[in-house]
Amino acid sequence: MSKRLHQHLFPIIDAMVEDALEDLESEGEEISCRKGCNHCCHLLVEVSWEEATELANWVLNLPHSRRERFLGRIRKNAAEARELFLSDKKAHRFLKPADGEEEIPDHIFDRYFYGKRRPCPFLELGACAAYEVRPTPCRLHMVTTDPELCSAESEEQEYETHQRLEELQEQATPVIQAAEKTHLWGQLGIMVEAAYQALIENNLTTKADNNNSEVACDNGDQKTRVA
Ligand code: SF4
């Protein structure tokens, strides 16, 4: 089940990151990412179905009012992303270069979405509310230059990822791919919205299979953990 999958995957990713950090420290380098700095939480974040399910499960287990708040943000984020992808020709071109057209380099792509200033729905009070189940891209996103350079307002608009961290991302890819079953990826809000719906439907089905005459619903009295 996806939860167990990521219980295994995240510790592996985190251990790789720890390893890279030790290497960097031994070279006198320092990661400048800090709690409260959230420039990268305004980038386009793509997640797998399993990661989206982790986040959706986190939402599902929140107390009612908090859950509703996050669901509202997730739906808004998904709707905005859909609108952007469908209506903005430039965004569309980033995703699907026309025949013969060169692929847009990642940093320009990131800058474009960053410029739209769409905060991740899990960003709360400047920090990640779902930190323990944040997806892999968020675990690997680290820079060694001044955090201000990550800002869209920065004139230089250039940040560097240390070479060791780039290697880490390359190393992590096969680990992630081996762990993913569905190979289904997408924008965070859209994926979490769909994964949440799937969890609810799965819960309804399980209830029906158990021949329970009560209909499970997503209300304040019900907390459901999908393992
Ligand atoms: S999941 Fe958390 S760390 Fe990742 S972009 Fe969203 S708020 Fe930031």
What is the count of DSSP helices, taking H or I runs of 4+ residues?
8
Order of neighbouring strands in the sheet with most strands: 1-4
Count of DSSP strands: 4
The hetero molecules present are:
iron/sulfur cluster
Share of β-strand residues: under 5%
Determine the fraction of residues in helical runs and give it as a percent range: 40-55%
**Separation, N- and C-terminal Cα atoms:** 7 Å
* Computed structural class: mainly alpha
Uncertain residue ranges: 212-227
User: What's the oligomerization state?
Assistant: single chain
Biggest β-sheet: count, sense, barrel? 2 strands, antiparallel
Order of helices and strands: HEHHHHEEHHEH
The mean pLDDT is 75
Number of domains: 1
Rg, Cα atoms, Å: 19 Å
Overall shape: it is globular
Structure at a glance:
By secondary structure, this protein is mostly helical. The chain has helices spanning 2-26, 49-60, 64-87, 89-95, 106-115, 136-140, 163-179, 188-209; strands at residues 46-48, 123-124, 127-128, 185-187. It has one domain (2-209).
Set out the fold topology.
Elements: H1 2-26, E1 46-48, H2 49-60, H3 64-87, H4 89-95, H5 106-115, E2 123-124, E3 127-128, H6 136-140, H7 163-179, E4 185-187, H8 188-209
Antiparallel strand pairs: 1-4, 2-3
Helix pairs in contact: 1-2, 1-7, 2-8, 3-4, 3-8
Bound molecules: iron/sulfur cluster (SF4).
